[in-house]
């Protein structure tokens, strides 16, 4: 996908992909790669989706989860303030696609009755959603694709990984529990 905003005309319910609302269960460090993982959890089930993110993006998410004040606006604060200044509002973010082991997201905004979807990295979309206090969704196809991708992994049993993630206690999830 290009990095661009797209104006979206109203679609029928049949054209809109099914989305599952998730919340951030926590942030943790991958013990093997030492990369941060955002754990998204289905609000209606025990299903979880781990998304590996960069250090700076994890920090932006953690700052907002902990409601830590910063002396100057961080990038995602700037994006929130810029959006507000343009009389727009972020209505939701969606982890919309999994392609070549990379997650993609859309930030959905409304401005003067027009709906706009902006391509984003999931970590940036999540950080912005936290600042707008708007819902986070995952496309059902992404969940299915992530399960298929996990099934193709040679060294990790996907059922064991899922059970491990679902059964992590708050201490194992780090300070960023919800």
UniProtKB/TrEMBL annotation:
Q: Which domain of life is it from?
A: Bacteria
List residues traversing the bilayer: none
GO terms, molecular function:
nuclease activity
Per UniProt, what is one Pfam family of this protein?
A: BFN_dom
Q: Which PROSITE patterns match?
A: BFN (PS51658)
BFN domain location? 19-150
InterPro entries reported for this sequence = BFN_sf, Bi_nuclease_dom
The identity of this protein, by name, is BFN domain-containing protein
Say which species the protein is native to: Granulicella aggregans
């Amino acid at each position: 996908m290009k990095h661009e905003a797209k104006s979206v005309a109203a679609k029928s319910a049949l054209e809109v992909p099914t989305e599952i609302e998730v919340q951030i269960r926590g942030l943790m460090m991958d013990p093997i790669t030492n990369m941060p993982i955002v754990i998204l959890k289905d609000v209606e089930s025990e299903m979880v989706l781990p998304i590996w993110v960069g250090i700076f993006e994890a920090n932006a998410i953690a700052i907002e989860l902990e409601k830590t004040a910063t002396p100057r606006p961080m990038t995602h604060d700037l994006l929130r303030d810029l959006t507000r200044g343009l009389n727009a509002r972020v209505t939701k973010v969606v982890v919309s696609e999994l392609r070549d082991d990379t997650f993609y997201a859309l930030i959905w905004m409304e401005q003067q009755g027009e709906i706009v979807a902006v391509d984003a990295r999931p970590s940036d979309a999540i950080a912005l959603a936290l600042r707008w206090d708007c819902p986070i969704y995952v496309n059902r196809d992404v969940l299915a694709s992530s399960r298929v991708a996990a099934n193709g992994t040679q060294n990790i049993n996907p059922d064991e990984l899922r059970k491990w993630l679902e059964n992590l206690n708050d201490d194992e999830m780090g300070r960023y529990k919800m």
